[in-house]
Amino acid sequence: MQGVPWSSVDTDDKSSNSQRVYRMTKDQILSGEFRGGQLLSEVEVATQLGVSRTPVHEAFLRLAAEDFLDLVPRRGAVVVPVSAQEATDLLEMRLALETAAVRRLCRSAESIDTLFGELTELVERQRHGAAIGDADQFAAADDAFHRRIVQVAGNTIAGRFYGSLSDRQRRMMADAARSDSARLTELIGEHAELADAIGRRDVAGFEGALLAHLEATYRVVLA
């Protein structure tokens, strides 16, 4: 039986290292551990992860293509801060997609009671995350809360598009949670209000509550 050529093994290792660096660096950006404006050194990241500079450079190129990093020649890359325009664009898209999802759900209400129970459980996960000071758990529950609304509505095109917003949504929520711990309690109350509006089949009430919720969250991020 022939062995795997060394060149193939080497290529596979490089690809695996690049993917690992990409995933870990992106997670740290989305969680807020790497903040907007922070300089990331290719040498330092390579040393920390025990890899050469090549997979780090490749990972940085991918993140730059996704607008999370600005490359700095011979130094590394700077984490791109969340801009006011990006926050506004995301707010408008989320408001449109989530309100349309609730409107669709209310036309065929079979799934609403089940969804209400799921959202209530996710609010409790947020409450637990806030109580133990776990911003990542809180942000994950927040993402799941809003994503579930769109998923249950059953519009596959809307679901795919909403999924493409998930990374930026997660990043802004993590920033909000880290920037203002008092805001966490308010967010939990706002999510409970959103779930109640869905349970009442109140589309207008949901839309108004969602707009206030998103605007308040983004003000914290951009302060």
From TrEMBL:
Protein's name in the database = GntR family transcriptional regulator
Against InterPro entries, the record matches this protein to: GntR_C, TF_FadR/GntR_C, Tscrpt_reg_HTH_GntR, WH-like_DNA-bd_sf, WH_DNA-bd_sf
Superkingdom is: Bacteria
| Residue span(s) of domain HTH gntR-type | 15-82
Q: Which UniProt keywords apply?
A: DNA-binding, Transcription, Transcription regulation
Please give the Gene Ontology molecular function terms for this protein: DNA binding; DNA-binding transcription factor activity
Q: What is the lineage of its organism?
A: Bacteria, Bacillati, Actinomycetota, Actinomycetes, Mycobacteriales
Q: What residue stretch is flagged as signal peptide?
A: none
Task: Record the organism.
Answer: Mycolicibacterium neworleansense
PANTHER family linked: GLUCONATE OPERON TRANSCRIPTIONAL REPRESSOR, TRANSCRIPTIONAL REGULATOR, GNTR FAMILY
